[in-house]
Amino acid sequence: MLGGTAEARALADALAAEPGVVVTTSLAGRTRDPRLPAGTVRTGGFGGVEGLAAACADVDLLVDATHPFAARMTEHAAAAATRTGTPLVVLRRPAWSPGPGDDWRRVPTTGAAAAAVVGSGRVFLAIGRQGVGEFLDVDAWFLVRAIEPPDVLPARSELVLARGPFPLADERALLRRHRVDVVVAKDSGGATEAKLVASRELGLPVVLIDRPPLPAGVRVVDDVAGALTVVREQPR
Ligand code: NAP
Question: Among 45, 204, 206, 218, which is least packed by CB within 10 angstroms?
């Protein structure tokens, strides 16, 4: 299993109780001190499609449970599965949809999000450490939140290092304390995050970056139960 998400951990935990199933979770190794799933864990890139294909040699099923924005890993998984004939299932939580009171402005890419917040005053950049570089030349002040420090920061910015999930009261307080005018987030999906609820409550617009598309033809399930069903279908 290609991991790095809460769903991947939940699936590994569920598979640990599944008779006859041995699961290895692969982590990219970006986060120091990651939350570890049950079963075996290996860490670090495979060295591209070749390496992942080699790692699939004694694998009966490849589960891509990476984050919806880990597009490169998902492309590699599809290519390695095709090359080796390994069955592949992608576990991808559903995207978010707006509710009453949400003021979401969808954009296709991080670059488009940067263009959308030019001159916006005070921006909460809640997209993690990757992609922050796209905002370097944007005329605005940024509150940047990430688990690990980004390689670069906009000139006018403050960095908050923190790992979610974040309680609603804290998100509300953060947005108020920093007098945020607009929030930038990725459409990660799953349980509605408190930053979106807090933005709605405070009447703040959210620039929401769309997910990159999935490779054509891959089998997709949208929750852990669906992935478990696929595992159980595999011949043993
Ligand atoms: P990415 O851009 O799609 O992948 C870049 C490279 O990192 C891959 O080609 C692969 O290197 C390596 N890699 C990625 N995921 C891996 C995994 N699970 N196991 C082993 N190698 C992996 O990925 P990313 O966006 O940097 O995300 C890295 C990890 O963080 C993913 O596992 C993802 O689930 C997790 N994550 C990402 C985000 C996000 O917003 N992007 C948010 C939360 C968690 P090789 O080519 O050398 O194999």
Answer: 45
- What is the distance between the alpha carbons of residues 190 and 97, in angstroms, rounded to a whole number? 10
pLDDT in tens, 182-229: 999 999 998 778 999 999 999 999 999 999 999 999 999 999 999 999
CATH architecture of the domain covering 104-209: 3-Layer(aba) Sandwich (3.40)
Q: What is the mean pLDDT of the chain?
A: 96
Looking at residue 223, what DSSP letter applies? Answer: S
Among left, alpha and beta (phi > 0; psi -120 to 50; other), residue 217 is left
Closest Cα to atom 40, ligand 1: which residue? 69
Fold of the 6-94+212-233 domain: Rossmann fold (3.40.50)
Give the pLDDT band (50/70/90) at residue 117.
very high
Does residue 160 contact residue 144 with C-beta atoms inside 8 Å? yes
String of DSSP letters for 137-175:
T-SSEEEEEESS--S---SSEEEEE--S---HHHHHHHH
CB 2 within 8 A of CB 86: no
Counting ligand 1 atoms within 8 A of each CB, the residue from 43, 52, 73 with the most, and so the one to mutate, is: 73
Is the shortest distance between the CB of 53 and ligand 1 below 6 Å? no
Kindly give the number of the ligand 1 atom that is closest to the alpha carbon of 65: 34
